[in-house]
Amino acid sequence: MPTKPPYPREARIVKVGEGPHSKYELRADHPNPNTLISEHKTEAEARDAKDRYEDVEKE
């Protein structure tokens, strides 16, 4: 099982698909490059997850 990545953490949001079937993935480079962290239905949910992933205070 992967360990928790050290801070500071960096993640990026990737849009997958087009139209009503699109989704958003949160990806980071820990433990491997381009690791899928989570999937979200909206960009707002993905931004919230990114904020929580990167902010040590929100862990």
What would you say this structure looks like, in words?
The model has no long low-confidence stretch (mean pLDDT 91). The longest helix is centred in the C-terminal third of the chain and has 12 residues, at 43-54. The chain has one domain (11-58): GCC-box Binding Domain, CATH 3.30.730. A 3-stranded antiparallel β-sheet has the order 1-2-3, with helices on one face. The protein has 1 helix and 3 strands. The protein has one helix at 43-54; strands at 11-16, 23-28, 35-40. By secondary structure, it is an alpha+beta fold. Residues 18-59 are annotated as: Disordered. Residues 18-30, 38-59 have a biased composition (Basic and acidic residues).
